[in-house]
């Protein structure tokens, strides 16, 4: 077998898959190494959301909007479900409504595709939203949903079939000295290497990661099913989300919202809780999440944190009876002060990391930029 390639990619999560896709489209011979038999990291332990509304105007928003287009193209060809269902940020307090109005005024000329809805219009979009005390909401047209577990499994197989991607699942890359790449089983040659290793800072270039402002974030999530079928419409979130995403950080009215939530419960900030509700093709609900930051994360999940998440969820949606069918945690890499970490530890090797919780939203856009530089 010819164990050589133009480009080698380490990691078959969404960051690695996006880089493989962009390289293959340009005609490069690509080999993809993944230590597991299939991807099991943060790329399959998330909401499956493409979420431009969370990005600040400029690089992040533009990258996310391009990624959204790529997701639609890839889903159509690879044969997995995608729904361009948009998003709703709902408001039940004056401070939340003020933030949404300030956001609209602040970014009226930005590339967001948003509008403010009154309470009746919100309910028309999503009948599960609680009507009592509802001020209204921020509708955004740009968000989409995939079922991450399905998409991340299908994309590499489709790339293999359509473009000839060389898949090496179950191969841990232990050494890189371009053009040489060693795994526990094989030796390869490649002209360029992209290391997309997610929250694994320890296997390759640990000394480089030690020099960077990177950490790991553990998030707790759940899957639920309702007693009676429901359709939530767009992906839903409420006031807590406004203080989580950078898109709202410049809103001066956020300070009062922040203060009220701190007074309401110390658990929200202590556990980094903001709540999103997504729905997959089978009608199952994806609920989350929390955020705990550390270079080594605690392996044990807190049922109290799950309760905080579910209690807040119930404050803005009425799903009837539902039961939790799965609980899990994910771990993603986070870089301080930036939306990604792209560095070259040695010639012809590029580390791509630190996309935080926006890997699904940004990876295709970032990979497109990096491959265009080759």
UniProtKB/TrEMBL annotation:
SUPFAM superfamilies: FAD/NAD(P)-binding domain. The keyword Thylakoid does not apply. Keywords: Flavoprotein, Oxidoreductase. Its cofactor is FAD. Belongs to the DadA oxidoreductase family. NCBIfam families: HpnW_proposed. This is FAD dependent oxidoreductase TIGR03364. It comes from Ohtaekwangia koreensis.
